[in-house]
Amino acid sequence: MGDRETSAILGLKRELKAARGRARDLAVQNESWRAVAQTLRKLAGIDDSQFANVLKSESLTE
After folding, report:
1. Of 13, 18, 35, 45, which has the fewest Cβ atoms less than 10 A away?
2. CA-to-CA distance for 31 and 13, rounded, in angstroms?
3. How many Å apart are CA 32 and CA 11, to the nearest integer?
4. H-helix segments, the chain
């Protein structure tokens, strides 16, 4: 394997590691937003079916 191939593989591994890190960060952020949504739902006094309708209207899923 030449230097170019080795460099390309190392670059791809680095990109994969960065993408996994971004995915991990987004998962944590998603959990935080879910907690905020649940708190707002409770404050607004919305029941489960109404909340499901809100999510559906915004093209989101529970």
Report:
1. 45
2. 27
3. 32
4. 3-44, 48-57
- In which domain, by residue range, is 10 found? 3-58
- pLDDT tens string for the chain (62 positions)? 789 999 999 999 999 999 999 999 999 999 999 999 999 999 999 998 998 898 899 888 76
Contacts of 52 (CB under 8 A, 6+ apart): 62
Query: Using CA atoms, how far apart are residues 61 and 34, in angstroms rounded to an integer?
Result: 11
Q: Based on the structure, what is the number of domains in the chain?
A: 1
| CA atoms within 13 A of residue 54's CA, in its CB half-sphere | 11
Q: What does pTM read for this prediction?
A: 0.64
